Amino acid sequence: MTRLIPHPVLSTTLVVLWLMLTRFSLGYLILGTALSLVAGWAMSALHPSTPHVRRWAVVPRLVLVLFWDIIRSNLAVARLLLTEGRNGRRSAFVQIPLTITDQTALGFLAMILTATPGTAWVEYETDSGILTLHIFDGSEVQHYRDVVGKIYEPMLMEIFE
Amino acid sequence: MSEMILTIALGYAQVTLALAGCLVGTRILRGPRAQDRVLALDALYVSIMLLLVVTGMRLGTAFFFEAATVIAIMGFVTSVALAKFLFRGEVIE
Amino acid sequence: MSPLQAVPLAVAIPVALLVVLGSTLTLIGALGFARLSTFYDRLHAPTLATSWGTGGVIIASALMFTVLEGRPVVHEFVIGICIVVTTPVTLMMLARAALQRDRSEGADGLPATGGETPPEDR
Known about the structure:
The complex is a heterotrimer. Chain A is mostly helical. Chain A is built from five helices and three strands, in the order αααβαββα. In chain A, helix 4 runs antiparallel to helix 5. The mean pLDDT of chain A is 82. By secondary structure, chain B is mainly alpha-helical. Chain B has one domain (2-88): Orthogonal Bundle (Helix Hairpins). Helices cover 87% and strands 0% of the residues of chain B. Chain B has three helices and no strands. Chain B starts with a helix and ends in a 5-residue tail after the last helix. Chain C is mainly alpha-helical. Chain C has one domain (7-105). In chain C, helix 1 (9-35) runs antiparallel to helix 3 (45-69). The interface between B and C is large, with 53 and 60 residues. Chain A: Its main location: membrane. Chain A: Keywords: Cell membrane, Membrane, Transmembrane, Transmembrane helix. Chain A: It is found in: Cell membrane. Chain A: Pfam families: MNHE (PF01899). Chain A: It is a multi-pass membrane protein.
């Protein structure tokens, strides 16, 4: 099982994407499954370590929190951009020490923070575990420290570690 | 009725997205540095891709979708290659 | 005859709202591009277009073609996934490249190189 399907999540996602791009039919299902299996083997040849999702139950909660956060920060950044020059906004660099070390978890954290308007991932030092973020609205520095340290980090830790 | 609503909304979206493309384009011309231009090029790809999707909706055909997909993927590859070049000065090490 | 006539009113209104929302957010992001003064500020402008800007237009398109063709049309979401997954990678690489270039020139106002924790954390 593990040798035939080394990356079950990747393969399933690829089959779903393949069926989304084409119309659903048995032929496309078989072709997509074959392709995703080959892609799984190629992936294991390139990147031998398989990320393990320990607890799937946390994933929907993470998605919900992220969805809400993206809506909220979209509105906040749009408002700041429209009043640019009159609102006294100053951006800031923030350095946050991280406790997660799992590569996949860090990758997800990077995606989450960069995809959310208002925060941008600038640098991460592997030895010291210090993350440098650029924050659009400097007055919300403490808020983002809490968001990263108390919301996303524990959730990702629960999922991956 | 629904045709009128959709025509107005999609026409508005076409104008808005074209304007967004122009604004981002000024940033490509103004710079001032290489990373600004690459960032603006990436944003230009997104605006034009959305413009294609909206045009496809207005004409009621799914053909523009293919072009939009290609732009979305190619835009990523070019931006990453350019960013890599800025970082190291060479694309393949 | 325009294919838009076949869309029922109950679908046309949400589609119109989503398209207007998405394109307006993209325009605001582009406006930020033209107005913001430093590179690191401008790094935040395209995320408006790539989160709800793209999201609104993509959902509207999927909704409209699903109704028009009478079967679920979801291929637009592939674009959405592509954009959502790839933009952070581009932005992160550009940010690192810019930081490295600025540091090598000795520009002001940059974060400290790692290894030392800033004073407010200790």
